[in-house]
Amino acid sequence: MKHKKTFHSIELEKNGRKFVIEGPVSKETFASCEFDSGLVAFRPPEQQHKALIKVAELPESRIIIAREENKIVGYAILLYPDELERWSEVNIDNLLELGAIEVSANYRGFKLAKNLLKVSMMDDAVEDYIIITTEYYWHWDLRGTGLSIWEYRDVMAKVMESGGLEWYATDDPEICSHPANCLMARIGKRVSPEAIHEFNRVRFKHKYML
After folding, report:
1. pTM, to two decimals
2. For site-directed labelling of 125, which of 23, 76, 136, 148 has its Cα 20 to 30 A away?
């Protein structure tokens, strides 16, 4: 399918700090910005910045950034699921995964994550997609936030709900391995019944679960 992308931007001011949340941004824009030192959830900041520049080259990818002046302090990425995940088995080309959403530890408390999701869903083109996220407790920064698993899950769910994602049941073994893990999704208004059926087929591989 043709991946249409319409740029959107909002400004956020809190506690005397001004932020711009915008996207989808181009590879060139992303590469030209600094990358905050607190973005360490996946790999060292410099390496993550380089990795995401490559992701920005993918035709389906959508990268939304939160920046303070020219410094990226948070981002959200939508792209096709990794080929090793069951979600890549769907026979449709309009399923995207929220591959990552991260806000620098230096910038927590500014509601940047919610606004990243909000801007991610502003483009009318998302109504053509099924957008999913898989949440696993072992990826959560429990130590850094001081939250329990269930407190963190509640915060995470509220962030995802701000982007219109809802909880969906599945028999995926990794998700089922702990009750805090979950699958959340947003099904666009223009997604066909056939695509929804295919998504449901992959959600439940064991017929007795249907």
Report:
1. 0.91
2. 136
